[in-house]
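Record type: monomer structure entry
Structure origin: computed from sequence
Chain ID: A
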Amino acid sequence: MDRFFVAILGALLVSTTMGTVQADEEKAPKVTCPVSGQPVDKDATVDYKGGKVAFCCGHCVAAFGRNTAKFAAKANHQLALTKQAKLVKCPFSGGGINPDTTIDVAGVKVGFCCNVCKGKAQSTEDKVALLFQDAAFAKGFEIKKADAD
């Protein structure tokens, strides 16, 4: 009888753990290629602004290299999504962040100095293009320094 309960307990533990792993994977932001929008290949990366941006294939790496400006907002967003870049100031004004003004932009929490800036962000359809374009990214984000070994 004791073996029966041990087997049931083991089965419950395994199913609960698997459910937790699946739930964590579902919560994790989906990193996509800034050129194609497809899932990334960990071997197709480029050093960019002190971080690494991942792509789906070598063709997209080449396309990015030919016209980095065209894909900059999505590459900058990927740096923030993968926590290589951290929001430190309002991306519009460069001022301090009011925690009551935070919104989610495709998996990245972005805060603003005031509700006027928040409203500006919310009023646009393509928030990634607006908030992660080079000028806004430079005002609001910093690349995290790699830990020294």
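Annotation 1: Residues 13-25 have pLDDT under 50 and may be disordered.
Annotation 2: The radius of gyration is 20 Å.
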